[in-house]
Design goal:
The complex is a heterodimer of chains A (432) and B (461). With 432 residues, chain A is α+β, with helices and mostly antiparallel strands. Chain A is 42% helix and 19% strand. Chain A contains 15 helices and 11 strands. In chain A, helix 1 (63-70) packs across helix 4, helix 9 crosses helix 15 and helix 11 packs across helix 15 (406-416). The radius of gyration of chain A is 23 Å and the shape is globular. Chain A starts with 21 loop residues before the first strand and ends with a strand. With 461 residues, chain B is an alpha+beta fold. Helix content of chain B is 42%, strand content 18%. Chain B has 17 helices and 14 strands. Chain B has a 6-stranded mixed β-sheet with strand order 1-2-8-3-7-6, sandwiched between helices. A 6-stranded mixed β-sheet of chain B has the order 11-12-10-13-9-14, with helices on both faces. In chain B, strands 4-5 form a two-stranded antiparallel ribbon. In chain B, strand 11 and strand 12 (324-332) form a beta hairpin. The longest helix of chain B is centred in the last third of the chain and has 20 residues, at 357-376. Chain B starts with 28 loop residues before the first strand and ends in an 8-residue tail after the last strand. Classes of the chains: A alpha+beta (432), B alpha+beta (461). At the A-B interface, helix 1, helix 2, strand 4, strand 5 and helix 4 of A face helix 2, strand 7, helix 4, helix 10 and strand 12 of B.
């Protein structure tokens, strides 16, 4: 059995995938990526606007996310509600998401709706309406979203506090959904200014994956998107987070059944070569029940209900953070100590080859799973183009993962997982 | 931050295709092994992954009285040791292949979903089958999983959106119904290793088991590997489904007090249909318009027009036994009554005025247009359909005839079904929020009101 389960090399699996993506840039700066796929008669059409909460300032925090909502509330040709009504009537549906870095619009529809979608997307990219009554109503929707994802969600509350403590100067300090007083306060002028620079074609990558032809997409792009004028780009984000010089701690006390612990470390931006090493470290520590933190904290020592980690890929230096749910009666000081013990181990002892192989195999199959759907591929292509600077890196990411050595793991762990670079946020249940 | 939460229940995968075109289930084979195991193979070349979906009939319906969560706990323990592998060895081998293994139980079956690279089909299948055929349930692992389950039930109370679903199940179905017993601290405390081993020996047998292989694989290799792996399973006795059961009567309201809540979560339900009800396609179209998509009546009123909530929806549950049709949403504490009144008004309007042929046409296009991405795109989606066919005694008409069934629904038929099913009377209400602030205003919704504290163990049952 041992040989049977030897961890074989998986590299080359992605390279074997079709790299048949066609890339074009329209004269107005809009980047177009197309991948034909005729498995099902549907299309995933994604618009990545490089604008997010990092482009905000105190007083208008959350405006990028608010804007994500406003993009569905009427433009010149298609008025209020029409984007959704026309789309659903044509058999499509949509969503959108906003992060610190980007605002992304995601459309899924049958191929018969392709031209309608170009018409409606161009209309809202160029001629959005700003109706004061609709803005007030949408404020209520966004506030409800905040109440659901932050105010009434213990992890949400703690995560907001973790970031606010870890970032003191850089805009990653504030939450994507915005501070409550800002949600109540932003004005029409704020919205117009945000739209003008954020939603310009030269600030956008459009990805089309599915039952289309390149010629079809290019003809529709020329007709609907090319006439939209370029705009000055959003002002550069100049503020850099100063180096952290000592551990930071933040506590939230709240009625709760169980505590929660989040521990964040400053890490570099997505393009930095250390980022892929951090992905491998994430897999080593938390991916699967054989991972180091799961097997110790959840299984062997039974200190935690769950343990997870996230290595952010962000435009500016971001965070690598761990989330731990301590068990009933377990002092969060103990889970924290166990975590720090594993991090120490990582930076002082070489990872055995077999364990490194396992982590790499996990990352590669996880990557594969995202390629199963047209939606998954559209999202990955856009994400690589925006965050890594080139969608082609998607097709070489297996080689980048493969190149990570035990020495890299040790070096990167030592560089970032230090006491002075960490922020510990703990939610402590209050007596009921 | 997402524009809308993707809240549609898996039970009602609102589904769609090139308008006018038909959809067809891809080619597959079905074979019954001598011990009763039903094997489906559905090859779908593409991303080089192979998906196993293994179903064992029974699920929560087969949990003995007082032992809610037994089928679920047994499923969770499958990976925790066999005569030839410890739990740790299982995880190391699984993770080493980059594979995934999820085991869970729902109302009517236990399911294992596992996925491996194409080249690891045989190794992955051996690992998966070992867990299903030879679980040894080591005492120490049993204790761990049960105590984690108990803490998990506590932690769920900190998440109102997850918690209200459990309260809802217990309250809507009631103690006499097999769906009315979500796993909870008390029942998990009672479960022993003997219960688990006995359950596995009885339930995990050939006549209860369905094995579905879907994805990028060679059918001949897979067929012989599955036969070899699952032939040793004893045939056993097929699970006998319980007689039909009905939800508890309506006209009741459960108020769950969470004193720190700044918004109220509520569900309003009426009795619905089963997975095999002949009216399920029509109800899917009606529910699309009522609360199944962004422009639905509920979301339009409560979110788009009034800004009372981030989202309002309705779901038609589709299980073996008739389930609920449920309106769900949340709003800030101060607007609880306004939002509940509005949701009820939308239901009354639907019941009295019905839908127009234009609305029905839009719902048809939506369900058809979204169906391929929700049901036909990936091997795991296709495996889910094959599993449903076997469990519920359906056939490939589930896919092949769907569009013609959609086309056949007329506005008159839909409106007759609306009057039959979407009735604003004898409703069941479950409300979670700050009771001190909403207690008086929610009393009016039902003649019978029960109040519990979220901090108390259990789900008010």
């Amino acid at each position: 059995m041992r040989v049977f389960f030897a961890f074989l090399l998986l590299s080359g699996v992605l390279a074997a995938q079709r790299n048949d993506v066609k890339s074009h840039t329209l004269p107005n700066g809009l980047k177009v990526l197309i991948q034909e796929d005729h498995n099902i008669p549907n299309v995933a059409l994604y618009f990545f606007y490089t604008i997010g909460s990092r482009n905000e300032r105190p007083g208008i925090t959350g405006i990028s996310h608010f804007f994500e909502h406003m993009m569905f509330n009427g433009a010149q040709k298609y008025g209020p509600k029409q984007f959704d009504n026309e789309m659903e009537k044509a058999g499509g549906n949509n969503n959108a998401y906003t992060s610190n870095d980007v605002t992304v619009y995601t459309d899924w529809f049958p191929n018969t709706a392709l031209e309608l979608m170009f018409d409606m997307e161009a209309d809202r990219m160029r001629n959005l309406a700003f109706d004061p009554k609709i803005i007030e109503s949408e404020r209520g929707v966004v506030y409800s979203e905040r109440r659901t994802s932050v105010d009434n969600n213990n992890t949400g509350i703690l995560y907001e506090q973790l970031r606010a403590a870890a970032f003191t100067a850089h805009p990653y300090h504030w939450p994507v959904v915005g501070w409550p007083s800002d949600i109540e306060g932003w004005t029409m002028d704020d919205l117009r200014a945000h739209y003008k620079t954020g939603y310009a074609p030269n600030n956008c990558v459009m990805v089309v994956v599915g039952d289309v032809t390149e010629a079809q997409v290019l003809a529709l792009s020329k007709k609907y998107l090319e006439p939209i004028p370029r705009q000055p780009p959003p002002p550069p984000v100049r503020t850099k987070e100063p180096e952290q010089q000592g551990e930071r701690r933040v506590t939230v006390r709240k009625r709760a059944q169980l505590p929660i612990q989040l521990v964040g470390f400053h890490t570099p931006d997505a393009k930095n070569p250390d980022t892929i090493v951090l992905d491998v470290i994430d897999a080593l520590l938390t991916s699967g029940q054989s991972s180091r933190l799961y097997s110790r904290l959840v299984d062997r020592e039974q200190l935690a209900l769950n343990v997870g980690a996230r290595a952010e890929h962000s435009l500016d230096p971001g965070l690598f953070y761990f989330s731990i749910n301590p068990r009933t009666g377990i002092d969060p000081a103990r889970t924290e100590k166990a975590l720090f013990g594993e991090l120490d181990h990582l930076r002082t002892t070489d990872v055995p080859d077999a364990e490194l192989r396992k982590a790499k195999n996990q990352l590669l199959t996880q990557h594969y799973k995202q390629l199963k759907t047209i939606a998954g591929r559209a999202n990955l292509l856009g994400t690589y183009e925006v965050f890594e600077g080139d969608y082609q890196k998607l097709f070489t990411s297996d080689r980048d993962i493969e190149a990570v050595t035990p020495a890299d793991v040790k070096r990167v762990a030592a560089k970032y997982f230090s006491e002075t670079n960490r922020t510990v946020a703990t939610l402590i249940p209050e007596a009921k | 931050m997402n524009r809308a939460l993707l809240v549609l229940s898996a039970a009602l995968a609102l589904s769609g295709l090139s308008l006018g075109a038909e959809v067809r289930l891809p080619k597959y084979t079905r074979e019954v092994l001598p011990n009763g195991v039903v094997v489906y193979l559905l090859p779908k070349p593409g991303v080089p992954l192979v998906n196993f979906r293994i179903l064992v009939k029974g699920g929560a319906e087969s949990d003995p009285a007082g032992l809610a969560g037994l089928s679920l706990t047994t499923a969770q323990l499958l990976r925790s040791g066999t005569p030839t592998r410890s739990a740790e060895q299982f995880s190391t081998q699984l993770d080493g292949l980059g594979g995934s293994f999820i085991a869970n139980a729902n109302e009517q079956y236990t399911f294992v979903g596992a996925e491996f690279l194409r080249k690891d089909l045989e190794a992955g299948l051996e690992l998966t089958a070992d867990a299903l055929l030879h679980p040894s349930f080591p005492e120490a692992e049993v204790k761990k999983v049960l105590s984690r389950g108990i803490d998990g039930a506590k932690a769920a109370k900190d998440n109102p959106q997850a918690a209200i679903r459990q309260y809802f199940r217990a309250f809507f179905y009631g103690p006499a119904h097999p769906y009315g017993h979500p796993a909870q601290e008390a029942s998990l405390t009672r479960i022993t290793r003997d219960n688990i081993a006995e359950y596995a020996a009885r339930a995990y047998v050939g006549r209860n088991t369905v094995v579905i292989v879907a994805g990028d694989f060679d059918p001949a290799t897979a067929a012989s590997a599955v036969r070899k792996a699952f032939s040793p399973l004893p045939a056993g006795t097929a699970w006998q489904w319980a007689a039909n059961a009905r939800p508890a009567p309506g006209g009741r309201l459960l108020l769950i007090d969470k004193p720190d809540a700044t918004q109220t979560y509520f569900e309003i339900a009426m009795p619905g249909i089963s997975r095999t009800d002949p009216d399920r396609t029509a109800l899917r179209l009606i529910n699309t318009l009522f609360g199944g998509r962004f422009t639905s009546m509920l979301n339009d009123a409560l979110r788009v027009n009034s800004g009372l909530t981030y989202g309002a929806n309705s779901v038609v549950e589709l299980n073996r036994l008739p389930g609920a049709i449920t309106i769900s949403t949340y709003t800030r504490t101060e607007t609880t009554e306004k939002a509940m009144d509005m949701a009820l008004d939308i239901l009354k309007t639907l019941n009295q005025k019905g839908i127009t042929p234009e609305q029905l046409a839009s719902a048809k296009a939506y369900v058809k247009g979204t169906y391929p991405t929700q049901a036909l795109e990936t091997p795991d989606q296709l495996a889910t359909i094959l599993g449903d066919m076997e469990i519920y005694g359906l056939n490939r008409g589930e896919v092949d005839d769907l569009f013609s069934q959609i086309d056949a629904v007329t506005a008159d038929r839909a409106n007759a079904l609306i009057r039959k099913w979407f009735r604003p009377e004898d409703l069941t209400f479950v409300v979670l929020g700050n009771a001190a602030k909403i207690r008086d205003s929610v009393k009016k919704y039902a003649p019978s009101v029960k109040e519990v504290k979220v901090s108390e163990p259990g789900y008010g049952n």
